[in-house]
Design a protein that fits this description.
Layout: H1 5-17, H2 21-32, H3 36-44, H4 51-61, H5 65-68, E1 80-82, H6 91-105, E2 114-119, H7 124-127, H8 131-145, H9 161-174, E3 179-184, H10 188-201, H11 207-230, E4 239-245, E5 253-258, E6 261-268, E7 272-276, H12 279-294, E8 296-298
Parallel strand pairs: 2-3, 3-4
Antiparallel strand pairs: 1-7, 2-5, 4-8, 5-6, 6-7
Helix pairs in contact: 2-6, 6-9, 8-11
Length: about 300
C-alpha cells in the first residue's frame, strides 16, 4: 500500500492516544470487530483503514480528522472528551481507564516525572482508596447522567469487580510519579458536605449511609494529615506536596509530565475529563497551575524543609 503523509499522521495520532501497543491492539480489535492480525496490518500500514473504520476510531479516541487535513485555526488546540460511562461500563470504558494507569506507571522509569492537580473536588488519585467516598462520587455521576424509572439510592450503587481492581491499580500507579503537587480549593470539603446534605434532603442517602461516609472522611483526613506531614508516599518514597489555594478554583485541572508524554486534563461531569496530548496546551495549563501554586499556602512537610521546585 502506498502511504502518504496524511495517513502517516493518522497512524501517529492513533498511537499517541494509546501508546501501549497491547492496549491499542485490543482496543481496536473490540472497536472494529477485527482479528488481531488484521489490526496489526492496519497499524503497520500494509492495509488501509476504511473510511468507516477511521470514523469509529477517531470518534472513540477523540482524533480530529479536520485537524489531520490542516483545517484548524492557529489558536485552536485539540481536546478529546473521555466520556467513560460509569453507569454501564463496557470493555472500551475499562480500556480507557487502564490507559491512565499505564501513563502513571511510566513514572517508575522517569525521575523527573511530575503531576500537578488543582481541584475544587477531592482528587480521584487520593479518594479511590476509600470505598464509601469512591461510591459516593460514582453515585453522584450516575444520578446526574442516567435516567431511571425508580429512585437510585446510594445503598444500591457499587462498582463492578473489574472497576474496583482498576481503582486499586490507579491509586498505586499515581504514586509512581516522582513529584505530585495538589492544590485544593479552600472550600473543598464544604462543597462535598453540601452535596451529601442535598442527597440526604431528597432521601437518597440514609443515616446509615451518612455514618459510612463520615467514617471514611474522618479516616481520609487523618491519612492526609500524615501524608502532608511526611511529604512522601510510604510505598514509593516519591514526593507529594499539598497547597491550599488563596482563591476559589472554578475548574479542576490535572497535568501529567512523564517520559515523552505531556497530558492535560480538565475535569468534567464529576468523573470524566477532557484530555489533550498537545504540548502547547500542556505548557499553557501548567503555567496557569504554577501561578496558582505561587498564590497558595503550602501545608505539607510541616516542621521540615520543603524541597519543591518548579522545573
Amino acid at each position: 500500500m502506498k502511504r502518504d503523509l496524511l495517513y502517516e499522521n493518522i497512524l501517529e495520532a492513533i498511537r499517541d492516544k494509546i501508546s501501549n501497543k497491547g492496549i491499542l491492539t485490543s482496543t481496536l480489535v473490540d472497536l472494529l470487530d477485527l482479528e488481531k492480525e488484521a489490526v496489526y496490518r492496519r497499524l503497520r500500514g500494509e492495509v488501509a483503514f476504511s473510511f468507516s473504520e477511521l470514523a469509529i476510531v477517531s470518534s472513540t479516541l477523540g482524533i480530529s480528522l479536520d485537524n489531520m487535513v490542516g483545517g484548524r485555526f492557529t489558536n485552536s488546540r485539540p481536546f478529546q472528551l473521555r466520556l467513560v460511562d460509569y453507569g454501564d461500563l463496557d470493555n472500551i470504558d475499562y480500556k480507557m481507564l487502564e490507559h491512565y494507569i499505564y501513563i502513571h506507571n511510566l513514572g517508575k522509569y522517569d525521575k523527573r516525572s511530575r503531576v500537578m492537580d488543582c481541584s475544587g473536588i477531592l482528587p480521584q488519585s487520593l479518594y479511590l482508596s476509600y470505598k464509601n467516598i469512591s461510591r459516593f462520587f460514582l453515585f453522584k455521576w450516575i444520578y446526574q447522567n442516567k435516567e431511571f424509572n425508580k429512585k437510585l439510592r446510594f445503598q444500591d450503587v457499587y462498582p463492578t469487580e473489574r472497576l474496583e481492581k482498576i481503582q486499586e491499580k490507579s491509586v498505586a500507579a499515581a504514586k509512581r510519579i516522582n513529584q505530585t503537587i495538589y492544590v485544593w480549593d479552600p472550600l473543598i470539603f464544604y462543597y462535598l458536605a453540601n452535596d451529601i446534605r442535598y442527597f440526604i434532603s431528597i432521601h437518597l442517602l440514609s443515616e446509615e449511609d451518612l455514618l459510612l461516609l463520615k467514617i471514611d472522611l474522618l479516616q481520609f483526613l487523618d491519612d492526609m494529615e500524615v501524608l502532608a506531614f511526611k511529604g512522601q508516599f510510604d510505598d514509593t518514597g516519591n514526593n507529594v506536596y499539598f497547597y491550599i489555594s488563596g482563591t476559589h478554583i472554578d475548574t479542576s485541572y490535572r497535568c501529567v509530565e512523564v517520559k515523552h508524554l505531556r497530558v492535560s486534563l480538565i475535569r468534567t461531569f464529576t468523573l470524566n475529563a477532557v484530555v489533550s496530548l498537545d504540548h502547547q496546551i500542556y505548557e499553557r495549563i501548567s503555567s496557569w497551575l504554577e501561578a496558582i501554586v505561587r498564590s497558595s499556602t503550602m501545608i505539607s512537610v510541616s516542621g521540615g524543609q520543603a524541597t519543591y521546585s518548579i522545573f
